[in-house]
Description:
This protein is of the alpha+beta class.
Amino acid sequence: MSDYSNVPDDFDPMQVDSCSLERLSGALPTRATTDSVVLADHTTFHIGGPARRLVRARTPDEVVDAVREADAAGEPLLVLSGGSNVLIADRGFDGTVVLVDTHGVDADVSACGGAFVRIQAGEIWDDVVAYTIEQEWAGIEALSGIPGLVGAAPIQNIGAYGQDVSQTIARVRTWDRQAGEFRTFVADKCGFGYRDSLFKRSRVAGQATGRYVVLEVWFHLGLASRSEPVRYGQLAAALGVEIGDRAPTARVREAVLALRASKGMVVDPADHDTWSAGSFFMIPILEPEAAVQLPADAPRFLQPDGRVKSSAAWLIDHAGFVKGFPSQGPARLSSKHVLALTNHDGARAADIAELARTVRAGVAERFGVWLEPEPVLVGLEI
Length: 382
C-alpha cells in the first residue's frame, strides 16, 4: 500500500498512480439534533448545565467564524464534537459552545493507491466506519461503536481492539486559533501517542478547547473486504481466528459491537449503563520500577520504550471497586465494566467527580498507581 502520511496540501493521487482513479463525493445520513442550550442534551453522560451562547455550525467556515468571534470577544470557548468524551459542570458553561455539524465525505480511490478519504469533522464516527466497510475499505473496522464525531478522533487518537486511528490518518486540517490561520498537519506532525496528540496537548489548564480546531480529517485506507491483521486477543477469540489473521471487515465490526455492548460501551439512550463517557480512566503506562511493585498476577505489557502498560480495569476491580459500585446512589460504576462511570439515576457532574475521586484514591492507596481521567473536564476537577 502506498504511504500517504506525508502528503502535501496540493496532493493529487493522479500524479502518484497510473491506475484508473474513481472519485466519490457525498454525505452520510444525518440524525436528529437539538439546539437546546442545556448541555446535558448534547453529551453521552446526559450531564451539564446551560451554555451562555450556543452556535450550531454547518460548514467549516461557520465553525471558524464562530470560533473567531468568541476569541475576538475574549469569551470562553467550548467546541463540542459529539459530547462523548466530556464531563461538563452542573453550572454549565459561561461562554460560547460551538456544535460541529459539518458533513461530507470525498474519496479518491485507485487499485494502486487505495482509498484517500476526506471526511468533515461533524460526521458521526461510527457511521463513517460502517460506510467504509460498505465500500470495502479496510483499516478502521475495529474502531466500530466508538461514540462521537470524526473531529474528535485525531484529538484523542481514539483506539480499541488493537487499532488506533493514527494508523490510518493521513492528515488533519485545522483552524489555528493562536495564529489566526488554517493549518494542515500530516500524520507524523500530529504528535500521536496513546490517547494523545498535539491537538490534545494544545489545550492548556483552564481552557475547554485547545489551540487547534479540527475541521477535516483525511484517511488512507486499503481496498479490501478483509480486515487488517487482528491484534487483540479478545477480538481474535470472538472471531475464532489467531492473532495476526485477517477476517471479513463486516464480521470484525459485528464482533466489536457485540464486545462493546457486553461492556456497556455502545450508546443506548434506554440503558443507563451507557450514560457515560466510555472508559473514564486511561490505561496506566508505568516506569519499570513502579511496575515491579504490582502484584504478580497484575497485567503487564512491555512497551517499546521500556515502560510497562497495565490494566486500569484490573487495578480498579482488585482495589475493591466492583461492577455497580456503589450499590446505591445516582453515580455508579457500570454493571458491565468497571472502567465506565455512569449516570445511573439523575447524577450531577459533582456526583461523577466524587465517584472518580473515590476510585482513583482507592487504586492509589492499594497499588501506588495514579489513574488519569480520559474525558475532558469542563468547569470541574477530580
